[in-house]
Design a protein that fits this description.
Elements: H1 12-21, E1 24-28, H2 37-48, E2 52-56, E3 62-63, E4 66-69, E5 81-84, H3 91-99, E6 107-110, H4 117-125, E7 129-131, H5 136-143
Parallel strand pairs: 1-2, 1-5, 2-4, 5-6, 6-7
Antiparallel strand pairs: 3-4
Helix pairs in contact: 3-4
Domain CoA-binding: 18-114
Pfam families: CoA_binding_2
Protein name: CoA-binding protein
Length: 144
């Protein structure tokens, strides 16, 4: 964030640091459908990353045998990063769920196509690193 309170996009060095320091990732809006982007990101990160991944979706119980949790509050750990695949209008509610965790995650990552300046400002003001409109799978491959 700038001194005027405006959110600014993380630079390449910031992204590298975020990706390197992250150990646990919750994928909010995970899908069991291989045609959905969240499935592709999960599958790629599961195969090639150092992350411990947690799937969050109240409408499914598992993805390929990996348990899915109904909410962030139901996870057995507080993740370092929350990677979001939800509709734009649901982003404020996701942020509220993230901020309710104790301790708080370090990073809120809004997947490609998701952008909400108010969510970014509010998240950053609460101490979160906020990344918007970027694909975690692509950036992990680029910066690892």
């Amino acid at each position: 964030m700038t001194s005027s309170g405006e959110w600014t996009e993380p630079e390449a060095d910031d992204l590298r640091r975020i990706l390197a320091e992250t150990r646990t990732v919750a994928i909010v809006g995970a899908s069991a459908n291989p045609m959905r982007p969240s499935y592709g990101v999960w599958e790629s990160l599961r195969a090639s990353s150092h992350y411990e991944l947690y799937l969050v979706n109240p409408t499914i119980t598992d993805v390929d045998g990996v348990p899915a949790y109904p909410s962030l509050a139901d996870l057995p750990v507080v993740p370092d990063m929350v990677d979001v695949f939800r509709r734009s209008e649901e982003l404020p509610a996701v942020l509220r769920d993230v901020l309710a965790l104790d301790p708080r995650p370090k990073t809120l990552w809004l997947q490609q196509g998701l952008w909400d300046e108010q969510v970014a400002r509010d998240g950053a003001a609460a101490g979160l690193q906020v990344v918007m409109d970027r694909c975690l799978k692509v950036d992990y491959a680029r910066y690892r």
